[in-house]
Every structure is written in C-alpha cells, then in structure tokens.
From TrEMBL:
<protein>
    <submittedName>
        <fullName>CBS domain-containing protein</fullName>
    </submittedName>
</protein>
<keyword id="KW-0129">CBS domain</keyword>
<dbReference type="Pfam" id="PF00571">
    <property type="entry name" value="CBS"/>
</dbReference>
<dbReference type="InterPro" id="IPR000644">
    <property type="entry name" value="CBS_dom"/>
</dbReference>
<feature type="domain" description="CBS">
    <location>
        <begin position="7"/>
        <end position="63"/>
    </location>
</feature>
<dbReference type="InterPro" id="IPR051462">
    <property type="entry name" value="CBS_domain-containing"/>
</dbReference>
<keyword id="KW-0677">Repeat</keyword>
<dbReference type="InterPro" id="IPR046342">
    <property type="entry name" value="CBS_dom_sf"/>
</dbReference>
<feature type="domain" description="CBS">
    <location>
        <begin position="81"/>
        <end position="137"/>
    </location>
</feature>
Length: 241
C-alpha cells in the first residue's frame, strides 16, 4: 500500500511569515494538530499544536488582551517551527511511513513531490485505517491465532482446512516478532458463522495445528467517548484460551 493511497491530499499549509495567531485559527477551525510551513511553496518546516502552546503566553500572563493579540500577531511561524522536518514521498509505502513515525516518535508526516512541494499529509490515524483495512475486521468478527513453522505449505494447509470446514477467510497475517527461529504466528480472520459450526471448526483445527487463541470482535460494543468501558469480566468472556 502506497502513501498516496491513504494520505490527506492538498493539505492546508501556511507561509513561514504567517503569524502564530493565524496558525491558532486554522488549527481550531479545521481540528488540525500540525501544519506544514512553506517558503515559496516548498516545505521548510512544520508547526504542531504543542509548538503553538509553548509559544503562547499562559493564562497567568500580565498582558492585557490588546497586548496579547499584538504579541501573537508579531510571532511568525518561522520563529517557532521545526525546520527541515522529516517528509516522505507519495510513492513510498505506508509501512515505511509507519516505521519513520515510530522510530522518530512523531504522529504525522508531510508528503512532498520531487520539488519539495507539499502534496499531502499522512498521520497515525491514516495508519490505523490501513491496519483496519488489511485485517478486514469490518467484514469478519472471528480471529484465530496459531504458532506455525516457516516451511513452505504450512499456511496453505491451514487455509485448505478452514475452507473445507466451511470457514470463509477474510485475511491471513503473519508475525515473526518475539518468535524463535523458524517459527511465526499466523492470524486468520473469518467471516461470521454460526457459533456451533465455529466450535466444530476450532475442534478440528486443534487436532492439526498449534492453536494459540480465538476471539470474536463485537463492533456493536465499541466504547465511545464519555461511556464506561467494558469490565475485566466482559473482556475475559470475549477471549477464549
């Protein structure tokens, strides 16, 4: 998956000589946390909501309103921005962008063309969307995890077994993190099916593979802001070991 398929295209940018007051207004109006800063249309910096907070006088300031507005209109973005920010190109992979963000502990990257013009921005939220897309959780609630060897044919055998028992596979993902050499974890997500039929499938898979766990994700029970989260007992009931 390429960055250009998931980035926000034509993001709002501000000139380096724009005031901090302008940045505050733009962030508030558009719910933004970072703004690319340009000079002659080319990326030279980035300003985040944290930069703005640190440059803005605290509520305890002795300045009156007129003095405060004057100060905010005089401070330029070039004075508070992070210069020469890390950027990425639209034809690079989303995985590469995610590694850059993780290694540098940043939550977003400007996307630039060959001439360093800002053509997009990709954020952690976009990475989450990619994760949801490749796992297929919206299309299948069941996830089954296995520990398997890396020899050819092992996943094909698993897929064949699942299909023969009536399971419809949405996605198959593998991970080598924390595993012994020649071992891997395999995560299979299935479309919904009657619980009795699913239990029969699990019993069959236990006979032939090293099954680690299975869980059913209930998207109707997603916590929302301001709501009480699930109790430990409710979470435990969802996870079958």
């Amino acid at each position: 998956m390429l960055v250009k398929e998931w980035m926000t295209e034509d993001p709002i940018v501000l000139d380096e000589n724009a005031s901090i007051m302008k940045a505050v207004q733009v962030m508030k109006e558009h719910g933004m946390r970072r703004i690319p800063v340009v000079r002659d249309g080319k990326l030279v910096g980035i300003v985040t909501d944290r930069d703005v907070r640190e440059a803005t006088p605290s509520k305890a300031t002795a300045l009156d309103v007129h003095e405060l507005y004057y100060l905010l209109s005089e401070i330029k973005l070039k004075d508070i921005m992070t210069p020469n920010p890390i950027a990425i190109h639209p034809d690079e992979t989303v995985e590469y962008a995610a590694v850059i963000m993780l290694e540098n502990r940043i939550s977003g990257l400007p996307v630039v063309d060959e001439e360093n013009h800002v053509v997009g921005i990709i954020t952690q939220t976009d990475i989450f969307k990619v994760l949801i897309n490749i796992t297929g959780i919206y299309y299948g609630p069941w996830q089954i995890a296995f520990e398997m060897g890396t020899q050819p044919g092992t996943i094909s055998e698993l897929v064949k077994e699942v299909r023969e028992k009536g399971g419809r596979i949405i996605s198959v993902l593998t991970s080598y993190e924390g595993m012994e050499p020649e071992k891997r974890r395999v995560y299979v997500r299935l479309a919904d099916m009657p619980e009795e039929k699913f239990k029969e499938l699990i019993n069959e898979l236990k006979q032939k593979f090293n099954l680690l766990y299975w869980v059913k994700d209930d998207l109707s029970q997603i916590p929302r802001k301001g709501e009480t989260t699930k109790s430990p007992e409710a979470l435990e009931a969802l996870l079958k070991i």
